[in-house]
From TrEMBL:
Annotated membrane topology: Multi-pass membrane protein
Principal localisation: membrane
Gene that specifies this protein: tcyB
Record's subcellular location: Cell inner membrane; Cell membrane
Protein known as: Amino acid ABC transporter permease
Amino acid sequence: MQHWLQLMAESLPSLLWAGLVFTIPLTLLSFTFGLILGLVTAIARLFGPAPVVVVARFYVWVIRGTPLLVQLFVIFYGLPSIGILLDAFPAALIGFTLNIGAYSSEIIRAVISSVPKGQWEAAYSIGMSWRQAMSRTILPQAGRVAVPPLSNTFISLVKDTSLAAAITVPELFQAAQRIVATTYEPLILYIEAALIYLVLSSILSQLQVRLERRFARYGGMLEANA
């Protein structure tokens, strides 16, 4: 027992450093770019011309219908066969961005569609253009509804970044694998890595609860003023 505790204490700085330098930046960048891609895709599916709608649907269908690990392998190991070489981190960033973009687009599309048509009519009645109505009226209301599912997506992404170890990104889980290769103590080190992911997820879950409560109060104020 004492040996395991010592091993955990010695390996903790390396695991935390890998999480700080690779896991957290990969998560934040992937979610940010994926959210932008999801918004564009959702708007394209709802309001775009037929050819654009077809392309957007095809993208969502492919990404949602294939495993994330396979997508990462195609980008990192498959693309070099046609002359496209990517380092591990950019390959992982592209893979996670495409994945988050597809899933978040469905969330965003659903919440935009849930906004009553009367909100559009009210915006147009006071002289707003489509863009103004979308940015000032529709998206703020849709965003409040989208917070819980998008927060869940973000928390899942934190854990999914462990798949980047399969394409040699030196993030938290691969750091644990490297230590295991020298210490031959897989049980305790993988448990330690799992605990770090658990702590991160727990912190984010608490932040999600606070964010939902704040948006709920904001929504209540809007309804009261209405």
